[in-house]
Amino acid sequence: MPYKAELAFFQKLLEKYKLQCLCFGRDAVPEIDLGLRRMLGLNNPPNALLDEGRENVIYYVCDGFECCYNGFLLPGGEQAFRIGPYLRREINDTEIMALLEKYRLSTSLFSMVKQYYSMLPLIRDDSIMLVALNALGEVLWGDADAFTVEYVENSDRPVLVPKPAQTAEAEMEAVRVQMVEQRYEDEKHLMHAVAHGLNHQAQLIISQWRIDAFEQRTTDPIRNMRNYGIILNTLLRKAAEDGHVHPVHIDQLSSSMARKIETISRVEEFAELVKLMVHKYCLLVKNHSMQHYSRLVQHVILHIDTDLTADLGLKSHAERFNVNASYLSTLFKKETGVTLTEYVNRARIDHAIFLLNATDMQIQTIAQYCGVPDVNYFTKLFKKLIGRTPKEYRTLTRGVGTDR
Q1: pTM
Q2: Strand order of the sheet with strand 79-86?
């Protein structure tokens, strides 16, 4: 296929959205609905794409279960490409009950159907799919005018196929197991990304999470979100530990996130907090991972980060850790790429920047909090590293003409 590379890239892109992509021939049609109808004891859905599909047409199909698909026949017409199922919106409990009634199914299947919907990716904005499919269509058929897009609202009414209760229960259990396995797999990938400080990968993973996929352990939805926030915080703590961040730093961030979790009052707040938590833990790993440092250098860095107001000179550190000052100086520079003095100065100025942005403290007070009681020297050091005095920096970043 001359378009093999483009199709492979397109498939990989959709898989990032957790979308099932299938490429198959007319004589080997796969189970496209992830087994929904089989589990419910219904006949297979009509396959409009292969039975009635025409070449050079991209189909948007929405079936009777509100599941959406996209598909098209590949050039030549012998193979088809199918995307889905996915949802355009969340399906609530009332709608699930209505679907069971529509297909004359037992209400005992409610839990299984709810679990099925929670497994599906949610694509709220159809324009994402439209743009992607149009771009691929131009590659496949050479021009935007060489293909069309058709929408098919498929209100199929499948015929019930009798199924032993034992078989149905086994298939329901298989769905539950699949969900648990997928959740643990996602959590494993998330922890790997965080442990390596890869925020872009971690954010992609959590962007695919569905809140309604979480088990509702209480009748209070806010309490459920907070509980999962606590679970996530624990997972991220462990990921940061795997990233060789000292427990002192992990504990500080974890405690801060725990307090934020308990202030959640809306679903939107929970979604934003999850993004913030992942970002903060990735940043923690990037800034404080000591994976490649010797035990001695790790102890020195931890001492610096823990108390910037202490005597952090080379001689003081050598005495504290009972090592030769020259040896410590050489080792520190070799492992960190900077001298001990440079590292301490950078840490103090970084903290000063935080205090300048987050507080209204006077500059002299900030200097003391950073372990530099001489405000004139502090100002000189700040300008050397940042290019502006503390006063100039605060004025520029906050737009406030203040001498503090």
Answers
A1: 0.63
A2: 21-25, 79-86, 68-73, 57-62, 148-153
For 110, the 3-state DSSP assignment is helix
- Could you report how far apart the first and last alpha carbons of the chain are, in Å? 68
**Do residues 344 and 317 lie in contact, with contact meaning Cβ atoms separated by under 8 Å?**
no
Element (H, E) at 173: helix 165-195
84-98, 126-140, 209-223, 319-333: lowest mean pLDDT where? 209-223
The structure tokens 């440079």 sit at 342
What's the pLDDT tens digit per position in 347-376? 999 999 989 988 999 999 999 999 999 999
- Give residue 275's pLDDT band: very low, low, confident or very high (50, 70, 90): very high
Q: Whose CA is closest to 186, among 218, 227, 230, 232?
A: 232
Q: Any residues with CB less than 8 A from the CB of 33 and at least 6 apart, and which? A: 45, 63, 65, 67, 85
pLDDT-based confidence at 340, cuts 50/70/90? very high
Residue 196 identity (one-letter amino acid): H
Q: Which residues contact 369 (CB under 8 A, 6 or more apart)?
A: 308, 309, 351, 355, 361
Task: Confirm if 96 and 110 have CB atoms less than 8 A apart.
Answer: yes
Q: Which residue has the tokens 């090592």?
A: 323
Please answer whether residues 45 and 156 qualify as being in contact, where contact means their C-beta atoms are separated by less than 8 angstroms.
yes
Confidence band, pLDDT 50/70/90 cuts, at residue 402: very low
